[in-house]
Every structure is written in C-alpha cells, then in structure tokens.
Design brief:
By secondary structure, the chain is of the alpha+beta class. Among the domains are: about 270 residues, Catalase core domain (Catalase HpII,  Chain A, domain 1, Beta Barrel), CATH 2.40.180; about 160 residues, Rossmann fold (3-Layer(aba) Sandwich), CATH 3.40.50.880. It is built from 20 helices and 19 strands. Helix 4 runs antiparallel to helix 5. Belongs to the catalase family. Keywords: Heme, Hydrogen peroxide, Iron, Metal-binding, Oxidoreductase, Peroxidase. One of its GO terms (biological process) is response to oxidative stress.
Length: about 750
C-alpha cells in the first residue's frame, strides 16, 4: 500500500485531501479537478471500508479449522499407529486438502494474465467541453462523471489477452484495461483495451478469432503469441482486421509499463441526460506519465529475466509512494455528426480520429493501493460491460451487443454460480435489494417470506424506482428492421483508417512495425498465408510498407499498389507515441553501476538530484554487501549482476572513481549492461572516470567527453569535470525523451 504524500494539485481547491495528485500531463485540452471530499454517500474509502469487513489478519492468532476449531498439529495426518494408514476421520486433513484441491478456479479464456490495483476516480470541476456543451450534466445524468466533490472508489485490472495465467507480461499482445467504478448508483464497468479499434466487427466472429490466435490445438504451441499459421491464416482472410493489425505490430503492443499505457473503451457508447436526450461517446484513458513502449529485443529477454515486469512495475511504484494517474477523456458527437463521418461509428474496427473530434478531459483516476490477496481481488474480480449506471447506455455496435451476453455467461462458467457478484471485490457499495435469494454459494441472508413481485405479504417491497428518482431507463431509440444475418455496407471500408495509422507514425515507429511483421510472418510456415497478408492486406495500406515486409519474409514484392489502396495521405498526430512524451522522469528506474572505490560525491549528489525529479535510482554492483567510496562513505547495492539486467531499467549511470571503474572494466556484466542499454535506445550517462567504461564498450558513432566539456550525443551524456548540476540536468532531459531512436545500434554485440 502506498504511503506517498504527493504534492498538491494546483487545480484542486485546498479543501481536497492530501491524497490528490499533481496535474496530469496530457496532450491537449484544459481541465479542472474536483473541489471537496465532503460528498454524501460514496467516497474514496467506501470500498475499502466494505472490504475491511471480510479481511482477516492472522498476526498473533491461534491456528483453527475453517469452522473455528483450534488445531494442535497441522504437520502430521491422523494414523493408526506411527507407521499405519491414515484414518478417514481426520477432519483437519480432509478440510486442508480439499481446500487445496479446489483453490483454483478456471482461468479466463482470454485476459488470463492480469494485474490490478485499487484507487479512485474524481471528475473535474469545470471540464472544457468545447463550443458544443457548457457542462457535462447537459449530456449525462451519471453522477460518477458529474459530481466533482466526490471520489468514487475503483479497481482497475490490466491484462494480456492471449496468454495463459502463467505466461509472460511482456509478450506482443493487446492489453486489457478494465475499471470497476463502485458508484453510489451501482457498479459501472468500463471494460476496454490499450488500443481503440478491435480485430473484428461482429461478436459472432469472436470464438473464431480466439481459436485462431490461441496455441494451435494439435500441439498447444506457441504460448501467448500470434506468430503462427492459424492466426495469420484467419487474419489474411479477414480484411476487416487490417486496422487492428497495424496497431498490434506497433509499439502499442509492447507497453513499457501499465502506468505508461493508454486505455480505450473501444466501442461507441451513449450518454443520456435527465431529459432522455442522448449523444454518442468514446472513452479514453490518458496516462500522466506519457505513452511509451519497450523494444522487441527487450521483451524477449524479459520473458526469462523478469517475466512479471509489468506486474512488478505497477506494484513497486505504488508501494514506493508514487500513485499512477490517468485522465479520463471523452469524444462527444451526436447522430448528425456521426452520419457525416466517412466510417460507421458502430464499427468497432474504427476509431473516431482526434483530428475530427477532440478528446475532452473530464476527470482523473489515481491508483494508490495494492491488493491484500491477489486471488481474492485480482483473480476473482469479474467485469461485465453490461454493468452501467443511469446516464450511460449502449450503442448498436454488434461486437458490444455480443459482449453484453458473453461476459455474464463467462462469469457463470468461471465461478460456477450466478452469485459471482457477491464476492467482496465485485460487490457494489450501493445498497442491493432484489428477489434473488438462492443459488450455489449464496452469501446474503435475505429476510422475509416474499421473494417475488407483485406481492402483498411484504408490501410489494423492494419497490421499483421511477427514472426521475434514479431508476435506470434505457435510451428510447427507435428500432425497426427486418430480421437478417448481414452486415451494413458502411462496415466495408477496411483500409482507410489502417492507412491513417501508418501515415501518422514516425520513421522509427514505421521501422518497428516492419520488424514486427518480419518476426510474426517469418514464423508462418505456409507461403500462401504470407502472400495473402502482403498482397491482399498490407498492399492496400501502403505499397512501400508491403514491399518492405515482403522483402523480409521471402515473398515477391508487389509490383504496384493494391486495388483498394485508399486515396488519402491524412495523418493524426495523436496516434504517434512520440507525440505522447511529457517532460517528466517521474517513476523512471535508473541503474547506477558501481564497485568499491566509487566517487562518494558523484553517487550521493546525482542520486539525490534524480530522485528529486521523481526517478527511482537503484545501486547495482557485482555482489551484494557494503561498498566503500573514495572518501569512506558506504552504500548497500540494491541489486547485483546476477539478478540485475539493463532490460529492467530505463537508463544507466556510471559515476566516477578510478578504482570502481577499473574493477568494472575487468567485468563482463557492466560492459554488457551499457551495450545492451545502448542497443535498446536508452539514456546512458557517465561522469569523471566513469567515461572510461563507455570507451571500453566502444559505442558506435557516439561522441564521448574528453577534457571536461559536457557532451550529449543521441542520449549518451558524458562529462569529465565536476559540474554535477549541469550533468544531472542534461541526463534528466535525456531520460525524459524515453528512447533515442536516432541511434544506429546494429553493430553493438548485445
């Protein structure tokens, strides 16, 4: 749990509590926060107060059975003599073993590998909704979005999609981004992903998509990967998938951290106001720390060295006192605007470009508390897009419509009971009263004789609630049509937005997409599948892109652009991650490499300077145990070479001290650490004699300081004098850029 006391948000009134966070760094739009925690009903602590009733702490307590009987021996089963058979009457053995045998529940078919944390959501006081609307209450009656004096407790779960529960965090995959809001009006589940489009247009296709992308059924290979024949066979025959494939091949599928990952509601939803009027809405989560990626070589090494990388990253920053923050934004547009778009807003393979409808920030989410029990909270949390509150409703998106059935059905399978909503992590903090009273593992004890409506025995309680008093009422959309299995012609354009995405990428991002396609399709055995992807899909996105992919996978490059290539060169700057890099190094993890004989002043001064900027500096040495500096100061390393790797850090720093640097020059690990960080485009810095280690590594085409002047070259910052303030500032600026894509690291042997 976090004990961090963040600085006050200048946009929040002084009456807010000390848990409020600094102003989010976003890509546009102005926003105002809430002003008070004095709201009636639900507040930030409501869910924790409820969970406190079911928490158990064994400290200082006696060991008992599940039924409260004190146990004298839990190591030996009851036997007929010391060497005799175990006796059936050993109730403690049977209870203990039965609990163990049944302590797992079926893992999720998709999104099995997950991580979650508690926090709160707070609307802004006066969000800027542009010229169309003065106030959010004009478009929705949802109190969770419109009451700035209230912090609503939330639980957010991040996940990979394809892999099993034991797979690695850093595989190339879509990431789930699901948030359960415990509102005063009931639970609202915003169940989305870190990419705004989806693979398919209709929920009917979802079982086929998952069967294709999962391990192949004959040998159960590969795990947590799309790089095999069945997925790309499916994809090559589904042009609608093209837009999503572009996102999956990009760095969006390799997030640096959950706290540096966008989230999207994917579908078009509706907001409904008190008068019953509706507008369409797209939901966006924007991370305060920017949107950043890993590189492919990093991810493959992390599979073995730190397979829990993203999970640990989320928990570490919260427990070290940094509370990750996201801004919730909305794109609002009415039916008339939707008709004017050159795509169908009900098509989940499409986005609403921010160049057409800006994202308007309306509130913030802060995650500030880690789970007490991973199984009880992260594994048992169950989401359902059908969990909405008054003021939020659905569109006719055929994928969303299918999910409204599928999620409830999935929870019934996982938990074996319709009472999954009674598990503490899933229970609303709002009051619950209805006539559901039975079923497997029922928790509530419902009083009274009448469990039906209408009834006279119980005065017809519980009573229905009119819409004007807060009862949920669906938007009164007129529906009239012939029963038909067909798809609208407005869903038929599969390449316009895929081309928009490609056009919006920087050159390094395009290189990453091509490299990803080489890896993915390079693992496809059947030539006809590779050819279909190049000729039928990629060549209708961009001819150069298709040619570059073909050259890497043994396919003859197409001679001319595809017949369905869109005739546009539009771009949307918001789609490039390079445009989502705020000027901050908060929570960045810096490795400081030392050995005995380090420069005391370098270590203490630079560590303090970086930590003052919000970075997390970890001392790395050959062995654990106290290390001595040149002036007699000592430090205890946080990591040693066997357990530390550059892929787990954001940047590398080598302080001076001739004895320390000489020792590291004789060791392979520090030199590999630096070379590997350079290969992954990460910031590297060395001061004083520390520059000698960089020269020993021989970084290609990189200038290293010689007689004192500070040099900053493609993210490599070096200085031989003792102007540590200037050096620290230059290194800080290099870290804030995240990656230095202008390097040419191919020659680096790492």
């Amino acid at each position: 749990m976090s004990d961090h006391d963040p600085t006050d948000d200048p946009r929040i009134d002084e009456s807010t509590t000390a848990t409020d966070e600094p102003e989010p760094a976003t890509d546009g739009g102005s926003s105002q926060p809430g002003t008070s925690d004095d709201a009636d009903g639900v507040d930030e602590e409501s869910k924790q107060d409820q969970l406190e009733e079911v928490r158990e702490n064994p400290e200082g307590e006696d060991l008992t059975s599940d039924h409260g009987v004190k146990i004298s021996d839990t190591d030996n089963s009851l036997k007929a003599g010391e060497r005799g058979p175990t006796i059936m009457e050993d109730f403690h053995f049977r209870e203990k073993m039965t609990q163990f045998d049944h302590e797992s529940i079926p893992e999720r078919v998709v999104h099995a590998r997950g991580t979650g944390a508690h926090g709160y959501f707070q609307p802004y006081e006066d969000p800027d909704l542009g010229d169309e609307y003065d106030d959010l209450e004009e478009v929705t009656k949802a109190k969770v979005l419109t009451k700035p004096d209230q912090k609503t407790p939330v639980f957010t779960r991040f996940s990979t999609v394809v892999g099993s529960r034991g797979s690695s965090d850093t595989v190339r995959d879509v990431r789930g981004f699901a948030t359960k809001f415990y509102t005063e009006e009931g639970n609202w589940d915003l169940v989305g992903n870190n990419m705004p489009p989806f693979f398919i247009q209709d929920a009917m296709e979802f079982p086929d998509l998952v069967h294709a992308i999962k391990p192949e059924p004959d040998d159960a290979i590969p795990q947590a990967s799309a790089a095999h024949d069945t997925f790309w066979d499916f994809a090559s025959l589904k042009p609608e998938i093209t837009h999503m494939i572009m996102w999956v091949l990009s760095g969006r599928a390799l997030p640096r951290a959950y706290r540096m990952m966008q989230g999207f509601g994917v579908h078009t939803f509706r907001l409904v106001n008190d008068e019953g009027d509706s507008v369409f809405v797209k939901f966006h989560w924007t991370p305060k720390l920017g949107t950043h990626q890993l590189v492919w070589d990093e991810t493959t090494k992390l599979w073995g060295k730190d397979s829990d990388f993203n999970r640990k990253g989320l928990y570490d920053v919260i427990e070290e006192g940094y509370d990750p923050e996201w801004e919730l934004g909305v794109q609002l547009f009415d039916e008339e605007q939707a008709e004017e778009f050159d795509f169908d807003v009900l098509d989940p393979t499409k986005i609403v470009p921010e160049t057409e409808v800006p994202v308007r920030p309306i509130g913030k989410m802060v995650l500030n508390e880690t789970p007490d029990n991973f199984f009880a909270e992260v594994e048992q949390v169950a989401f359902h897009p059908g969990n909405v509150v008054p003021g939020i409703d659905f569109s006719n998106d055929p994928l969303l419509q299918g999910r409204l059935f599928s999620y409830q059905d999935t929870q019934l399978n996982r938990f074996g009971s319709a009472n999954w909503d009674e598990i503490p992590i899933n229970r609303p903090v709002a009051d619950r009263h209805n006539n559901q009273r039975a079923g497997f593992m029922r928790q509530e004890i419902n009083e009274g004789k009448a469990s039906y409506k209408p009834n006279s025995i119980g005065d017809d309680d519980p009573q229905e609630v009119p819409a004007e008093e807060g009862g949920y009422e669906h938007y009164a959309e007129k529906v009239d049509g012939t029963k038909i299995r067909n798809r609208s012609d407005s869903f038929e354009d599969h390449f316009t937005q895929a081309r928009l995405f490609w056009n919006s990428m920087s050159e390094p991002e395009k290189d990453n997409i091509v490299d990803a396609a080489h890896f993915e399709l390079g693992n496809v055995d059947r030539m006809e599948i590779r050819e279909r992807m190049v000729y039928d899909l990629f060549n209708n996105v961009d001819h150069e892109f298709a040619t570059r992919v073909a050259e890497g996978i043994g396919v003859d490059p197409p001679e001319s652009p595809g017949d369905e290539l869109p005739d546009h060169d539009r771009e949307d700057p918001s789609l490039s991650m390079e445009n989502r890099t705020p000027d901050t190094i908060e929570t960045r993890k810096i490795a400081m490499l030392i050995d005995d004989g380090f420069d005391d002043d370098h270590v203490s001064t630079l560590k303090s300077a970086l930590e003052d900027e919000g970075a997390r500096v970890k001392i790395v040495s050959k062995l654990l145990g106290e290390k001595s500096g040149t002036d007699g100061e000592t430090v205890d390393p946080d990591k040693h070479h066997v357990a530390a790797a550059s892929v787990s850090f954001d940047a590398v720093l080598i302080p001076g001290g001739s004895e320390s640097v000489d020792a590291m020059r004789q060791q392979g690990s520090p030199k590999h650490f630096v070379a590997e960080a350079f290969k992954h485009y990460k910031p590297i810095a060395a001061v004083g004699e520390g520059t000698d280690l960089l020269e020993a590594v021989d970084l290609p085409e990189t200038d290293i300081a010689d007689d004192g002047d500070l040099v900053s070259d493609t993210g490599v910052v070096t200085c031989r004098n003792d102007d540590l303030e200037e050096f620290a500032e230059a290194f800080r600026d290099a870290i804030a850029q995240h990656r230095h894509w202008e390097r040419e690291p191919e020659e680096v042997p790492a």
